[in-house]
Specification:
With 428 residues, this protein is mainly beta. The chain is built from one helix and 30 strands. Strands 1, 2, 3, 6, 7, 8, 11, 12 and 13 form a nine-stranded antiparallel beta sheet that branches. A five-stranded mixed beta sheet has the order 15-21-20-17-18, with no helix packed on it. Strand 17 (275-280) and strand 18 form a beta hairpin.
């Protein structure tokens, strides 16, 4: 018997329902079934469930009908559904039963919010005449049932039988609309909602009696451990990935920097040749992308920076790869600082005997001209006028007099350029 998937419940709750959608309801699609291996799950340490005959647990099963051999229980709550999964060693759908079998029955029970919650389903033998079918249709109608405390109805619930293969489990999949479940419970399903006392059982049934070879599986958790909670478990869908070692060096306005991150699979092995996006939360969602190398390291150049000084979250994210790998992300903070500025030495010329012209160029920290900004001119320590730098960063004062002390000052631009001042020069 395989025990690759253990008993795991990541969420759940259920309300009363025959598993037949009401008129006008659109059946929800069958969810992805859990992966076969959930190494962090709570399991069946005996290596197999117990045989059940007439409701009495027996010895562990070793060679029974795989169509009623319990292998695992999983459950989760998504944004729209409650989903419960019962893993069976293997069954066919429609079932291939012996002529003495009239049905295979499947039940999952647990407690939540003070209620005993039960999911049930049945596959009838398609080759037997109806008179041999079980007559207790109140409990086993059609293909399955769901109820809470055996009370009430919940439209839109469904059950599906998903046959497995020689190496993968078969699954009985129960779904119920989350909003209707929450309405039936009278409260929302909050993250961390505990779910306890999980049991699963099956019956190999005839019209006259329960055959030996049914199966059961019960949580063997201690009281302290028996607090499985609502959430989406990674055992569903493709395997997870992880992003770590996100590096986001600080950058100065107008400069560039290099982001990096490491992408690994579920076994902490590097994933090569995969895209990693770095998205700067700057109001525009600026994105740069790198491709992982043999060590799983992705690097990408950001810049020249055009966002003002401040702190910005950077999300490093792997977009996933269909059914092969799940998405993953991690965050870091980009710190942007304003750029320094400086003036070139003041150059004084003599247009006439009574006037002096003073010229300077305002540069950023990469010695590039800062164009179109205001430069204040101070003469003998007092501000006298302002001029604007041209496209080359040049600013000119044309009204200085011989003997005056002149200085150019730039007040800066918040988040972009820092303030600066030239040296004082005397107009000779």
């Amino acid at each position: 018997m395989r025990r690759g998937t253990a008993l795991l419940v990541g969420a759940a709750v259920v309300a009363a329902a025959r598993l037949v959608p009401a008129a006008g309801d659109t059946p929800a699609p069958t969810p992805d079934v859990p992966r076969d291996v959930c190494t962090h799950a709570v399991g069946d340490p005996a290596g197999d469930a117990k045989a059940v005959s007439g409701g009495v647990s027996g010895t562990p099963l070793t060679d029974n009908n795989p169509g009623v051999d319990v292998e695992a229980v999983d459950a989760r709550v998504t944004d729209t559904q409650l989903q419960v999964f019962l893993g069976i060693n293997h069954f066919d759908s429609p079932p291939k039963m012996a002529d003495y079998e009239s049905a295979w029955r499947y039940t999952v029970t647990f407690k939540m919010l003070g209620k005993t919650l039960t999911f049930g389903a049945e596959q009838n033998n398609p080759t037997l005449p109806s008179l041999l079918y079980p007559q207790d249709g109140a409990l086993y109608t059609g293909s399955g049932y769901i109820f809470v405390n055996t009370n009430g109805d919940l439209a839109g619930s469904t059950v599906a039988f998903v046959p497995g293969t020689g190496t993968h489990l078969s699954w009985v999949v129960y779904t119920a609309p989350r909003d209707k479940v929450e309405k039936a419970l009278g409260q929302p399903i909050a993250p961390g909602t505990p779910l306890t006392s999980v049991t699963a059982s099956t019956q190999d049934y005839t019209a006259l009696r329960t055959l030996p070879g049914g199966d059961s599986l019960a949580s063997t958790l201690t009281a302290a451990q028996d607090q499985l909670v609502a959430g989406d478990d990674w055992c569903f869908g493709p395997p997870p990935t992880s992003i770590s070692a996100v590096t986001v060096p600080a950058v100065t306005y107008g400069h560039s920097t290099t982001f990096s991150a490491v992408l690994k699979d579920e076994n902490a092995k590097a994933l090569a040749g995969k895209p990693v996006d770095f998205v700067v939360q700057d109001g525009k969602g600026t994105k740069v992308t790198g491709t992982t190398d043999a060590n799983g390291l992705a690097t990408a150049t950001f810049g020249p920076d055009t966002v003002p000084a401040g702190s910005y979250q950077v999300v490093a994210q792997f977009p996933g790869e269909g059914t092969t790998y799940k998405t993953s992300s991690a965050t870091a903070t980009l710190v942007v600082s304003a750029a320094k500025t400086s003036f070139t030495a003041l150059k004084i010329t003599k247009p006439s005997a009574t006037t002096r012209q003073v010229t300077t160029t305002l540069l950023d920290d990469m010695h590039k001209p800062v164009a179109g900004v205001k430069v204040d001119w101070y003469v003998d320590g007092k501000k006298t006028t302002s001029t604007t730098t041209d496209k080359t960063g040049k600013a000119v004062l044309r009204t200085a007099k011989p003997g005056q002390k002149v200085q150019a000052r730039f007040a800066g631009k918040p988040g972009i350029w820092l303030a600066s001042a030239s040296a004082v020069a005397k107009a000779a």
